[in-house]
Write the structure tokens for this entry.
Amino acid sequence: MRQHLLTVLILLPLLGVLVSVGYSFAPSRQDFHYKWIALAVTTFTFALSLLLVGGVGAAEFRFEENVNWIGAIGARYHLGVDGISLWLVVLTTLLMPIAILSSWTSIAKRQLSYYVFLLLLESAMIGVFVSLDLLLFYLFFEASLVPMFFLIGIWGGERRIYAAIKFFIYTAVGSLLMLVGIIALYFIYGTFDYAAILAAMSAQTTLLSPNAEFWLFLAFAFAFCIKVPLFPLHTWLPDAHTEAPTAGSVILAGVLLKMGTYGLLRFNLGLFPSMSRQFAWIMITLAVIGIIYGALLAMVQPDVKRLVAYSSVSHMGFVVLGLFSFTEFGMQGALYQMLNHGVSTGALFLFVGFIYERRHTRLITDFGGLATPMPWFSTLFVFASLSSIGLPFLNGFVGEFLIMLGAWTSNAIQHPWIVTMLAATGVIWAAVYMLWMLQRVVFGKTNPTNATLPDLNAREIGLLLPLLILMLVMGVFPRPFLDRSKASVEAVRARVAAPPTGGSFAGNSSRVLRVAP
Amino acid sequence: MNSFLALQFTPPDVSFALIAPELIICVVGVVVMMVDAFARPNQRWVTGSISLAGLLAGAAATIWLWLSWDGASQAFNGMIVLDELRLGFTLVFLIVSALTVLISMVWVENEKLPAGEFHSLLMFATAGMMLMASGGDLVILFLGLEILSIATYVLAGFRRTDVRSNESSLKYFILGSLSSAFLLYGIALTYGATATIGGLPGTTNVAEIARRLNDAQYPPLLFAGAAMMLVGFGFKIATAPFHIWTPDVYEGAPTPVTAFMAAGPKAAGFAAFMRVFVFGFPFAAAASKTISGELHSAWVSVLVVLAIMTMTIGNIAAIVQNNVKRMLAYSSIAHAGYALVGFIAAGAASGVEQRNAAITAVTFYLLTYAVMNFGAFAVVQLIARAGDRRTEVEDYNGIGFRSPALALTLSLFLLSLLGTPLTAGFIGKILVFRAALEQGYVILVVIGVLNTAISAYYYLRLIIVMFFRERTTSWMAPPIPASIAIALVITVAGVLYLGLFPGQVINALQAKPIVTMSLR
């Protein structure tokens, strides 16, 4: 069982899909049973995924599975987990039961399809983080689009169709170009296998020409930067987040965005270190622009959900900044910030969902003084917001502090202190937009229509608790998290920060990718 | 020695084994006609069952040929060849034909159409397609094409009382004849051009043409002939700018016939097109200023332009369509463009192995296209009801949760046409793009994937209409007859099987090495 653990994790949600569909043919079926099936399956998946934690620590991949899949085109079914992917897998499995609990009462129509799509999405997301075969990775990466497309399109808000199609086409364009890059890599290295390609690069047996590496870096980076989303490519995000149902927003912010930064870390930095160094200043500039621009836009949003969505742009900017600082602090912080963002922003979307369920509006001006009728809600909301701002002793602080420490000491770019100071203003802006929003929503005079709103019930508090506890634990005791990922991150850092001679391309490569026939 | 004299002293080169599949299908066609004429069966499914049995027998014969393979061979003095290009395509045609019989079974019944005629015409069309894949001579290729085309003209106009069907048939006939004329003229010019200085008369044998290119007597004629043939074949497989007939013909023809035309004749066109150009005007180093080298680089460059135009025009025009059949027609143009990408790779490949892989990619692509396209048209036909009345996008409004089974299968086919991973369409695209990248056509492949992204818009649009909108008018779920249910099960299973575990099929298509046709 242990050596097939990753396959089991991918297949369990699919099993849940089969059970749900099978159950729908039962004569005495009840619609509310579907969510119980989904909850049971995802909780069990989460419990199983915890088994991974003990096994990972060193830089190499664990729980590996490597069998032939499509021999004719050289694709393998190669899975494995290391310190980089470990926590992302656990984050995924943790957020799923929470997302399902959050839809408990809000999803009344078409429950079967809703939970089926959520379960399919979980399979695909776990697959993305554990695939070590590029084609398999692409497959899961693209497959995760379809369930999300349906979740937004069927159960979303007013402009759901526009948001769903924008989401799909934006991400599809990027990932299709990555597919070309993947096939090109196949022709240079004769395999889709990530580990094998990396080994061939490290052993300097096959090296890329600068020209080939340039285009390959771009092909991969474009796909991931759309997903993150990095500054000029972010416009799909506010629409998708705002229109998605609560659970969809939680998953989108919590996990789907991480696929982008995970891809940047694993593939761009890992496979194309020389080009990563050359592109570092561009990526960092865009990240810093994203941090400030996202924060400024968040400030002026009249809609709470849109505000949280734009804050994501800002937070993910920090992650990219950390990744391209090429320092241990920065990269570890970036990985940590991915988890933080999943936990905190996921929680914020849940809060927005709770008040939307009660009032059917998300406009800040419709609220005010919620503290009186909803004390539990208000307390916890403020707590989660502070975590998102980055208050010391809460998780956001650790991540952002590490990233800025890394950026300050980085030698990936010149004058890193300018970048760090600009990025630091992002934290201040975060305090401004979050606190201002809190002031207008939670405090102040109670709007008479809100005076009778019921406070959070046991289910809602229960599903928030794991996230709130994590915020605190990750804020005061980050060591166990960082220790597990340290070796893997260090391996990537050592590769990407090496002097140019140790990089991926040499002056004259035997196989040069032709751009035109 | 004069070759005409030599012929009289050698025994005729006859091998019935080599044309067994074609013979079986022709005989079945005649049998179906006779049964219909003399037995006058009251049950319409009788002729359909005979046709299905015949197609199975044809498939068995093909597989027998495949298993008893010991290198490429030929018969009838090179008129008929047996190589891997033929076998893979022959199976595709048989599958297409069998699916057509299945999805048309109930339609012929409901529309009170003469079933016997329909099935025998379909069998003759199938025989024509098979000849187009097995012919090693321009004359046989043309013969196959005409057998196919004439049967298809009639099939397109099969709903005699319907004006749209008549229009479709007539348009197809006029433009099809024009393209046949182009093709024939091209064949004639090639024949004339390949007469050698040594006194040999011209030839229409594809392998012989390849050998004579460099000492052709009239090189300019050769170029003109190749260009004419390219236009002729371009019409048949509907590449832009020769695609103008496609949308009208596909929209007007009865839905099962449209499904057939989009998958079968198109694949047959590809088979013959590849036979003539990849084998007849084969790769020659472009650096050497030989006639064969110049001809080769000329047609490959022209095809690159055609492929780019075809993909782009097909996809962009599909976006603005409001009729589902018309949209699928434009989508079929776009798919011909993707298949052309693989064709180009086969043409540009210098080694036999790479060419082999590229041809396999095209065959596999057309196989997956046939399967998913048939699935989609089967659902479209069910929803359109009698007389093909409901084919507007509006008719699909909100049916997703009213008929979940139909809507989900249609969505699966659309996602596969789009090329989403885990479906057949994805593997097909990977194969053709991979083949083209191997030959260094990076720009072409990038244009291809960007086109895939464009196509997402119109494929998803139908899914959106079905699932994301609410239905305002009443909707009665159409009953699903058994034969269509079988066809849907086969196509769904095919899409998933080819998408998840395509290894075996690809291996089977690739296992036999293509031996060059220079046997004689």
